[in-house]
Design brief:
- The protein is an alpha+beta fold and 144 residues long.
- It has a single domain, classed as Gcn5-related N-acetyltransferase (GNAT) (Aminopeptidase).
- The chain has a 6-stranded mixed β-sheet with strand order 1-2-3-4-6-5, covered by helices on one side.
- The longest helix is centred in the first third of the chain and has 19 residues.
- The radius of gyration is 18 Å and the shape is globular.
- 17% of the residues are buried.
- The mean pLDDT is 95.
């Protein structure tokens, strides 16, 4: 047993350490894949001083990865989520992306994504009790 080792658990592990672990895992994965060209991608819609919608993720390996898509609750149902997604897609296409990947736990969002050209590649029923995880892909240029 090595002297000086100390296990920390749960709330005793600082947020900065969690971020360092995340960064190390991502870096290791990118080193394995080689050729990573990861770049953040984002859009935000403001009305005066109020943020009303936004989305962000990254482009990497000619794919748009959408991490978050949000519309303020009182502005939902007006097409702003689709507008945000189309804005991200347009940027991704300019960067040379061939497809886009997004996940959701909401059935109604997966239906909206299907109307926007996404196809469900996989789903995990009851991923979170009462929710299905939908993994959706939109292809602009087929990969070999």
């Amino acid at each position: 047993m090595s002297q000086g080792r100390l296990w920390r658990r749960d709330e005793d592990v600082p947020a900065a350490v969690l971020e360092e672990i995340r960064r190390a895992v991502v870096l290791h994965g990118r080193q394995q894949a080689q050729g990573s060209d990861a770049r953040d991608i984002a859009v935000a819609l403001w009305e005066g001083e109020q943020l009303i919608a936004g989305a962000f993720g990254r482009t990497e390996f000619q794919r748009l990865y959408v991490d978050y898509l949000w519309v303020r609750e009182d502005r939902r149902g007006q097409g702003l989520g689709g507008d945000c997604l189309r804005q991200l897609e347009a940027q991704a296409l300019r960067r040379g992306c061939k497809d886009a990947l997004i996940e959701t736990l909401l059935d109604e969002v997966s239906e909206l994504l299907e109307h926007l050209g996404y196809v469900c590649m996989a789903h995990v029923h009851d991923y979170v009790p009462g929710f299905t995880r939908h993994i959706m892909l939109k292809v602009w240029t087929p990969r070999d």
